[in-house]
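Why show two proteins at once? Because comparison is the fastest way to build intuition. When a single record is shown, students tend to memorize it. When two are placed side by side, the eye starts asking what differs. So, the first record is below.
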Amino acid sequence: MGPGVLSALADLVLPRCCAGCGLPGAVLCARCARLLAAPHLASPRRFPAGFPPTVAAAVYAGPVRPVVNAFKEQGRAELAAPLGTALALAVAAVRLGVDGDPPLLLVPVPASRAALRSRGRDHVRELTRQAVAELRAAGVVADEGRVLRRRGRVRDSSGLSAAERRANLAGTFEVTGPHRPAGDLVVLVDDVVTTGATLTEAARALQVAPGAAGEVVAAVVAATPRTPAGPPQATPASAGYRPGTVLHHDLDRLSRSRGRD
């Protein structure tokens, strides 16, 4: 019995549907896939001091939210491909804001022990590996660096304010070894950014590590949209980063939205 027959039988028992909108036929329909190809600077409502320049491939709202949660919480491993491609797009976009054409070191934000126990996997690492493969296929020199680890215990961040999240995460991350080959651009990667507390603390750990030097930027699959309350806030960019260049560039094959079975 060939793989095509097995796939057809599986569809009869467990029909495929889009993880975003529920449309039958594919794990991610073309319309929802396009929502994962809209890179923009992440803009938390209140920027934590030290928040790194961060590009998100999508807005964490509408169909994007159930797509990310289906992969993250429901174990839909087939979504690693489109979400990893979205992460690669965000990485390629944030790289445009730095000088030169440096090799990339993608550093996944490590999961907590509790999250690893409950999910049985490190979903951010899965996305990182997929993103590295996509970037290499596009001709970008990229690698994964598992150089961060968590220490101590933190409370569940659900329901915490932005200030409480920052306090909860203080001192959480540490660098496990030399983290930056000479000339590499370190890109922190995660699935979603909300308040920015996690990326800020992880970036701080990388920047204060022995031998650390240069820029640390970040890329995520999706970012929580800003609420309309209050006046717009400018993104505080670190020295040398030019956020205006991110959105005005042909990102070539990585920007082609596509659904994948």
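Second record. Ask yourself what differs from the first in the token line.
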Amino acid sequence: MTETTRIRDALIAAARDAATRAYAPYSGFHVGAALLLKNGDVVTGANVENASYGLTLCAETAAVAKIANEGWIGELAAVAIIGGRPDGDALIGSDPVNPCGRCRQVLNEAAERSQTDILVHCASGDGTAVMTYRLSDLLPAAFGPKDLGLIGD
């Protein structure tokens, strides 16, 4: 097993654990995200639904808010996302879960601050499928801090 695969699998496991703490009474769909920081630490988040659906927080947004609140917004190195319907201790779902458009933009903010084109590992709930992308492939021509002159090229 390569180091990249080991790191990917550990991030997916952390995201799976985070998904167990999702608050999803309306959709029943649990999502977990795990952010790898440059120092090797992992910070997680889970989706938090709201009766006013527009106020729902995605797992990725919850995790990025955590690193921003700790002053680590410029330390993002990679992310893993997993989601599915809970079935006991397992998640059901065979298709990889990709970040929504809003989360791609939120991840881009942290990635630009980190000056890293991060890897985004997207896993299926049952763990049988994983797709890995560069954030720039998921959000080409992204608008971010660099466009405001806040980060050099």
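One difference worth noting in the second protein: The radius of gyration is 15 Å.
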